[in-house]
Amino acid sequence: MDNNPDDSLRTLVYLQVHAAPLAVQTYFYAICTGLTAYILYQKWGPGADRRSMPPSAFMVFVTLATFLVFTLLCIIDTYSLWYLAYQSLSDSATDEVTQTSGKLVYIENFVSFPATALMFTLGDVVALWRAYVIVGRPRLLLVLSGCVILGEIASWILTIVLWARLLLGGPYEPHLLADSKTVLVLNIVPFIVTAFVELIATSLIAYKTWMHWKDVREFVGITTIRRSTATLVVVVESGLVYLIFLITYILLFYFPRPNQGVVSLAFLVVFQYSLQSLIFIYPTLVIVLVAARIAVLEHSIHSVDLRSGLRFALPPGGTGSQDHDAPRAQSHRWGPREEDRQQEMSQGSDIILGRDVGFAGLATATNDAEDIESKSGAGTRRVELRASLSLVDVSVQRDSRLAGEPSPMSLP
Question: Which helix (H) or strand (E) holds 84?
């Protein structure tokens, strides 16, 4: 290694700027590993067959894909740092250090850039999926979301192809690529598309939340989740945090900035890597919130839709029409336990919906039994039709104090 103090200082600064972000990335990678392990445990762990709503195949696929790509990025960054440190601190000539930098440029752009593109695409897929579920699963939104994702993938593929043509044209040093306007355009276009997709998803969720804001607040009040935690979950689930992180990352990465000192540069790089890592683990974090059944927006909005759909099947007087069952309703007296169950059922606090379960039919009244009773002497028969509720894809959870008692949704 050259004994020039300036070269030694430059090398140490370069290593510092690359080593600190790697430490931050390792921390977020550990978090991603824990979240992935939780999803896999919910899917295939002990007692998975007894869970009413285990993670779906889509959720497991996105979680594993995010974890594998994040692992690949960590391996690339670790190898790049080791390779740079080995070559810079060894007795090598200056041109070899330059060649090493050129090789790292190829590695980062041929492997790391496509992996990063895949991570951003997975984040947009999860954002559109949550918007689709919360809005109410309209088929038109599903088709439009598919078209948007295909367009985003096409933009990333085009960018990668143009990158390959640019890099294969000859060896380029890092500062030449950084100052190239062509490279700037190639990098920023797909990120703008990603931000636009996320803006669409967040706007849809925000509109639905605004329409049901009163119901969301009531749902938070009757759940066991703390209000501060519920607020944080709403912000994360809506995609607002992801959108803010994405816009900040784009501005920091592409916005021109003046020359900075070593400390400022290191802090900026660490902050960029932190934002990037948060963006990477966002899909897994949202899936964990859904799998843990603390997705506040989905539960609160769908509970309102469920209660409104049940009104025709559960009139105040009982199971049938008011005229037919009025005497029966008046003769029935609710006990303390039954009154509690009725109140909880009317509030919807015991109805917890699954993660990605739609309302194929909220409630349908069907004739499931025909009780024919003969009256002696009169020769007449009375037919009593009992209406039963068929709740499609709805999971009813009872409070622990009601364990072992009939479901609050059962009819008297």
Answer: helix 57-89
